[in-house]
Amino acid sequence: xxxxxxxxxxxxxxxxxxxxxxxxxxxxxxxxxxxxxxxxxxxxxxxxxxxxxxxxxxxxxxxxxxxxxxxxxxxxxxxxxxxxxxxxxxxxxxxxxxxxxxxxxxxxxxxxxxxxxxxxxxxxxxxxxxxxxxxxxxxxxxxxxxxxxxxxxxxxxxxxxxxxxxxxxxxxxxxxxxxxxxxxxxxxxxxxxxxxxxxxxxxxxxxxxxxxxxxxxxxxxxxxxxxxxxxxxxxxxxxxxxxxxxxxxxxxxxxxxxxxxxxxxxxxxxxxxxxxxxxxxxxxxxxxxxxxxxxxxxxxxxxxxxxxxxxxxxxxxxxxxxxxxxxxxxxxxxxxxxxxxxxxxxxxxxxxxxxx
Length: 356
Known about the structure:
By secondary structure, the chain is an alpha/beta fold. The protein has 3 domains: 6-61, Arc Repressor Mutant, subunit A, CATH 1.10.10.10; 73-176 and 313-343, Response regulator (Rossmann fold, 3-Layer(aba) Sandwich); 178-310 and 346-352, Response regulator (Rossmann fold, 3-Layer(aba) Sandwich). It contains 11 helices and 15 strands. It has helices at residues 6-20, 25-32, 36-48, 85-100, 113-125, 142-150, 178-191, 208-222, 242-257, 267-279, 312-327; strands at 22-24, 52-55, 58-61, 73-79, 102-108, 130-133, 156-159, 172-176, 198-202, 229-232, 261-265, 289-293, 306-309, 339-342, 345-347. The strands form 3 sheets. It has a 6-stranded parallel beta sheet, with helices on both faces. The protein is globular. The two termini are 26 Å apart.
């Protein structure tokens, strides 16, 4: 890192404390390649400014008590999978856990409602004080889910699902506004001069209907012309090249209708469309502007893909914070349900023609 200026060192120190709650002076000195004496002087200066509290060997956040704290609060987390979308959400929870004095206890449901409930009840039996659950709504209604949830002895927060029934209004929830994310993509392509925006969607995912809703809403509001729409089979269910056939047909429909822009869910399918387009002599973005919905690997495509980026780390941090507030609520006054919706952002790269 060279010889960082005092301001750079201070920002690094405060960021480390924000994430971890405490820091070790020797570790920071090693990270910044400066002397331990330099870091100790920095800590003294930041303590005088009220931005941290010195402790033996390092420092801690100014708002953390300097006396021994109670044991960590175990919070159960049940998600369909620990890879892809939910892995980053869990990382966001983990980053927030130290400052909240929480310990995550994780289980997966594999998109099976019966396993989901069994995992949740197992965590409650093991002593978790609160539960964060990303429910699978196949084979169960929101009413069924609410009846089950109301019987549980700990606070529940529902994660990354839009739950519209009156029964679910009694519970805390945190989710991405995927419909608005799709609108952002269509609006961006419209600003670039496109009067048609095609849509290709992975079938049967919780996100799919929300992306369709947002795309439709933007098309109607902006007065765009009709454009191709296609649902895509899930890649792991495709054994005969059916997905590539769908993608090829989608490209052909775009060419036939003069459609030069498309929103594609997910980024894996968008990257494959990009490859097929290039193989067919279609230039991206000159002949076809692409925006991916999801941003796991979009930046690594042959032409880096502009993508709707879900606020996954923020979702995790906000969900854990909300359930901890519920767990530690001591007032006799009931706490009203919190239902937080976080808007994704559009990460602009080369595939839409707006630069990177």
